[in-house]
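A favour, since you know our structure tokens better than I do. Could you add the entry underneath, on a fresh line?
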Amino acid sequence: MKLERIRSVSFKTYLATVLLVALICIGTTSYVLSQSSSQTITIEPPSFTETASYTIFKVGDTIYAKNGTTGEIEFSGTDASQVIQSAINALTNGGKILIKAGTYLLSSPLTLNRYISLVGEEPYKSTWLVVNTNIPIFNLTEPDFTIENLFLDNWCDGYTQPLIKIISDNKNIQRGTIKNVMLYRNRVGYGYDDAIGIQLYAPTSGKGITFLYFDKVYIMGGFKYGIHLYAPDGGGWINGNFFTNIALDGVKYGIYIEALGSGTSGVVNRNTFSKVHIQATNDAYGVTERGFVVSGVANTFDICKVWDLAEGKCAMEILSTAEDTIVRDSLLYGLINNGQGSKLFNVEGYVTENSGTATISSSTSVTFEHGLAGTPTHVEVGWKDTGYGDWKWTANSTHITITVTNSGTYSFSWRAYYKP
């Protein structure tokens, strides 16, 4: 009887709870049931507050912007650009906008106000922002922005724009972050055109782009420039930006630094590129010409690698307008260094000193490969035989020729240096 009593009470309690939950759910306001460790069931009122100031989502062809505080739909329509931009413009003091998974076709570029974070639901591929005309996806003219967890795509032949354009036209652009973002363009369908993945552009003297942070950015195919830092003569500066964990695949030029001015005008200085991997291509749809093209002052490259370059192409070209470039712990075959004061440490594929043996056989000269990164600047010879008379060396970018005055057979060791 005691056991039956317990079971009876338990069933009644259970039934009462079910009925209470049903009555609550019938009402217009939702409630949340919670249960403490003491098995006491409590009923708590809901909170409409979400982590995002606005949540963007799509149902059919309609895009909605829900206020994260009130839970109300404030903006809606079939034009994703208008709905997203309306939510951005409503946040005059900054805030976070979460874009739920889906594909959003944009009719105009998005601009971010200061302190705005635009975040996709998951990294890379669940939230797609797409343009099918010759316009950027982002046109960034304000500092203190964040773009994260997005897949950016272009469905346009003859594309000549950057998917992300950061421009210091009227003010300095500082402290922005782009993280967990993929940029894509179909190289097989469109080729390279003059498309750009990300462009930092400083056209105005006295204005610049500084302290931007790029992390886990993947740029794939169909771009002339993967990342383009461009400061024209008479323009501003692009200084002190940091790029890390960057992957580029199938672009014509991976990272192109174009500094056309001097002093404090039109300069690209002291930017850092760390852990950059570039997969080159060589097929009917396009050829990677350069992994990196470098100008500017004191730009640093750490742990950078370029894979599978075609013959005659080079992983990095340091232009004559570059000064004090630093390259460390990298794999860069075919590196061309014409810069002033370049410092290269532990760079595989860039040989600055080599040695070997050779023999002049019944002649006055012999030519052999030196294996250096460029034309030797100094050659030493240790003769094993005598009677050769005087000797001299000449060289080009691939070979050394040793010439003696007396014909004969002479063996020697050699050591060559490339110290431009």
